[in-house]
Amino acid sequence: MSLSPESPSPPHPRRRAALRALIADAGLDAMLITDLINIRYLTGFTGSNAALLLATSGDESSVFCTDFRYTGQAREEVPDLVTVIDRASDLALLSRTPGTRLGFESHVVSVARYAELAASLAGGTELTGQQGLVEGLRAVKDAGEVASLRAACEIADAALAGLIQAGAIRAGRTEREVALDLDERMRRLGSQDISFPTILAAGENSAIPHHQPGDRKLAAGDLVKIDFGAVVDGYHSDTTRTVVLGAPASWQVDLHELVARAQQAGRGAIHPGVALADVDDAARGVIVTAGFGERFGHGLGHGVGLQVHEAPWFPSVGAPSGGAGPNSRAGRMIADMTVTVEPGVYLPGRGGVRIEDSGVVGPDGYLPLTLAPRDLVVL
Question: How many CA atoms lie within 13 A of 203 on its CB side?
Fold first, then answer.
């Protein structure tokens, strides 16, 4: 008789313990979590209505709440917490608050909802806003999360390769047709969804960083920028490649080579402990030195995970070191963060190039999870 390998223990209790330490340091007795992505991270629940009351004292004093539609799902996905069934999940948990200092996600809760929560509190209980505590934890991935991201990147890589091999990126097809073709290929390969609306931008439209694909037909001589991603276990990949239809013009080759050098410089600068601003500078400096600094107007990249854009954030042009986003840990690279590196140069009316990988911060540097060729592909 053979025994199957023991399945790894679920990560959610460990994640809750890490958050519990943070809220204890903040002097709180408990924290009310209402962001559904954060709830999924902490409990495994994937429904559309839930709240979590996390007590500093431990899981035995913590309570999960959802509504009638998810009774069975909650039993399967959140077996290790007391569960309450109530449509008004956040309000239903207020009466169970241990102690007098209750934290809440002030970057998530609207002003109107805050007023309702405050009005429903028992006398003597104080609501204390907290920002980015869970998002900061989410920025550093465990092995299971990295495996899911790797699988999402593999699907995206295979879908793009299949699209190219089938000759589906060709003159006469519209941007929308090619984008939908790529989306379907990712789904057929096992993607749960697309990470975000696929960007397929041809010719002059490739100079628009987040162009929405339309009825513009691909034509010989076009640069075609493709920004897309797959989803596995809720984890999102993010990839951009730029190809050319027919023999490329010299300016297209030069532009692609410039962005490729900048992307390599950015990837090469990533190591644990390095400031995000320094990584951005390494890539941006290549483009600035070439005289195209004004044509690279966005940040170098961002974290990827349960959201396609999450902490950490590379700083945007002119932003303070550490970038935007509610994450106090975003100032420096930490081992096992998963981030994109995506410089681009955009020439209005002519075309643009962006090259983007998703990858993980390893002990010795950046390990791309996106493995699609970065060379200029001529179709």
Answer: 15
